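Q: Now give one record:
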Amino acid sequence: MTRPPPIVRFERLYLTSFALGLLIWALTWDQLSARLAADPRTAAFGWMLAAALTLNVAIALFQWYAVARRGVAWVRWMVVLLTTLHLLSLLPGLFGAPLAPATLLGLVRVALEVTAVAQLFAPAARAWFGLDGVDDGDREELA
């Protein structure tokens, strides 16, 4: 089955959002490292930053592949959940003055993610996820 246009748009928006997220990590890495090192209770946990980034990348790439390339319906709900969490985690930074560049980039990232998620619920995407009872056997289910 060829991918419908909403799934292609999802892929482009999601991967752009992913790249922007990596840029945000790069811009805030020193600040996060310094914050961990400043507190004696967390100073020994500097390695967790790299672990968190690795986990973030693995989850994002899994979501992209499962949704955009395999059409796994349950993973789209995982994308919705994590996009909602990204939005909620961004809210506290919006009420601080002045807005940091990373927060502004985070706004753009979440806007891209929300737009990408909307593509997953377009009528043309239903068949891709096997929700219309149409399955030509080209997709493999990730169970």
Residues 119 and 143 are 23 Å apart (CA to CA). The chain is about 70% helix and 0% strand. The two ends are 20 Å apart (CA to CA). Residues 5-38 form the longest helix (34 residues).
